[in-house]
Amino acid sequence: MSKLHAEGEIIDTQTVRFERLLPGPIERVWAYLTESEKRRKWLAAGDMDLRAGGRAALRFNPSELTPHQEATPEKYRKKFDGNAVYWEITRCEPPWLLAARWGEKVEDSEVTFELQTRGNDVLLTVTHRRLADRDFMVSVAGGWHVHLDILADHLNGCMPPPFWATHARLAAEYEKRIPAEHA
Question: What's the distance, Cα to Cα, between the start and end of the chain in Å?
């Protein structure tokens, strides 16, 4: 797989990794990871206490990430229609690295954002670890894929595709790509 292939790379039974080459500078991409108003355009709004041990309460509203009118699928309504998802920041090294535990329990999954300057661009690597089971991995892979595509579209001044329709298509692709032994 090419280093900059848009598809998620299945690292092991609990880990998926994505890479996107984004227009810089690195401080601009960092701002889209850490500033609520910029992050709400591609992922979720909410303040972050940017230090190890700091917390974030992120409010996801995927239906508001694009101008396309879509209903949230029943499967995701309780979790993502404006409800807060809590993160605990585990590492913060501006503007190079941000890591957080996704949830409030030690065993919850962990996401890491790594940024590297590549000329005028920035390589963003997102690694999501400790995914509990195959179904969660399929959903997370489809979710990160579409969220990162929307981030790239915003940074490149393009219109993003509909969130939920794109997520459904991508989750179906990951359903085929992630082997059953990941269960």
Answer: 23
